[in-house]
């Protein structure tokens, strides 16, 4: 979490290998990220950027199948295993019923689930999501966060997600990291971060905390 322009997306691009750090190094499972080929890196990290590519005339099943790219040779047809993984990814994200539909015919929340399915088809232990809730209304925001939480719980994924809503973060995330002017500001568990003084440091606003009537953690209001 951070103000706009604090370096959140830049950090995601660094972690994904999209850009190279000017100093230091990023290790993925003990391996220097910059030394991995694009395909090898894609076997470790799935990255969903803030601005998604145009899906054009792709059918849902075709887009999800692109997640198998790291495991295929040039012009190789999908194996039975590839097909099985794609079907499992669509089932996990509840988009199987849209398999033969054009991606662009779906609603915002449905599209996000399709892109998440593509990431799952990569079979990576790490998933990076840059503002996947942007432009979604509250219903779809909760739907996507519930899905991500389910994937973490059931598949053991490590997910790093950029979101702006502190209350959604407090209800669905395990840990919160805040940046300020390109540097780490605060990092801790939800309970450690959901304190009025900590939120004041992050947002520069006096927020009041109340117990959520149905949640484990507090919520913040002006």
Automatic annotation (TrEMBL):
Swiss-Prot/TrEMBL catalytic activity: ATP + H2O + proteinSide 1 = ADP + phosphate + proteinSide 2
Top class in the EC scheme: translocase
Enumerate the UniProt keywords alphabetically: ATP-binding, Cell membrane, Ion transport, Iron, Iron transport, Membrane, Nucleotide-binding, Transport
Q: Does the keyword Ion transport apply?
A: yes
Q: What's a Gene Ontology MF term here?
A: ATP binding
- Compartment(s) where it occurs, according to its Swiss-Prot or TrEMBL record: Cell membrane
Q: Which Gene3D superfamilies match?
A: P-loop containing nucleotide triphosphate hydrolases
> What protein name does the entry list?
Leukotoxin translocation ATP-binding protein LktB
